[in-house]
Design brief:
alpha/beta, TIM Barrel, five-stranded parallel β-sheet, three-stranded parallel β-sheet, disordered N terminus, disordered C terminus, hydrolase, NODB_dom, signal, metal-binding
Length: 250
């Protein structure tokens, strides 16, 4: 009797195994490969050209953003700043200066919330409020969005896509983690040891003492320039080199 009792659960498991497997594959499918293949999210733009896009999150900051901007100007480097709306309201002149220097201003929500806890409606409000704040400050309406913390799912992607935005992440091998103050040397080595054509590099110009970021850029910018790299905005990277990525996924 016990053998029969054991047999039926095992038989049921065998019958259902394909459907469980398909479900698991579907869940795994909503990852980088899924979104990148659809063109919904961009992590990098592999190209033969020696171009690289430096990006800065969470600002503007009244101390560190101007220091970073001065270094970028010194090395004729255009970058993309993913700004937080309420900080744009605090320091509009800094954002105007960035725009005047032809840096790209992009959307990073209004209050930098944990968007995993937001409804689609609240996310849209965050994005639209930031959009209007940026527009009233610079006269420019961004088309790029980076989710706080790098979190994304179908709700996030679909919501901002319908609002006219493309989600921009960063190259996995170019997350400097400068927000954690890992040391200037680690930030420098992360970027220089992994630099590839079409990279999107993640820095922060706000979120504490960003002196390490500034000091790292003092070494990174001249070295990349010596290697022949041109510093472009993310939109320039997309327009000039396309955004179709051919990669092999683990």
């Amino acid at each position: 009797m016990k053998k029969h009792i054991l047999f039926f659960p095992l038989l049921l498991a065998v019958i259902l195994a394909p459907s469980f497997s398909e479900t698991a594959n579907a869940i795994r499918g909503k990852n980088r490969e899924y979104y990148e293949t659809r063109g919904d999210i961009v992590w990098e733009v592999p190209t033969e050209s020696k171009v690289i896009a430096l990006t800065f999150d969470d600002g503007p900051d009244q101390v560190y953003t101007p220091q970073i901007a001065a270094l970028l100007k010194q090395y004729q480097a255009k970058s993309t700043f993913f700004v937080v709306g309420n900080r744009v309201s605090q320091y509009p002149e800094i954002v105007k200066s960035l725009a005047n220097d032809q840096h790209e201003i992009a959307n990073h929500t209004y209050s930098h919330p944990d968007i995993r806890k937001l409804s689609a409606k609240r996310l849209l409000e965050e994005v639209q409020k930031t959009q209007e704040t940026i527009y009233s400050t610079t006269g420019v309406r961004p088309t790029l969005f980076r989710p706080p913390g790098g979190y994304y799912d179908e709700t996030v992607v679909d919501t901002v896509k319908q609002a006219g935005f493309l989600v921009i992440m960063w190259s996995w091998h170019q997350d400097t983690r400068d927000w954690s103050d890992p040391g200037v040397k680690k930030i420098v080595n992360k970027v220089l040891n992994n630099a590839r054509n079409g990279d999107i590099v993640l820095f922060h110009d706000y979120g504490g003492n960003r002196r390490q970021t500034v000091q790292a850029l003092e070494q990174i910018l001249p070295e990349l320039k010596n290697r022949g790299y041109t510093f472009v905005t993310v939109s320039e990277l997309l327009r000039g080199y396309g955004r179709v990525k051919q990669v092999h996924y683990p």
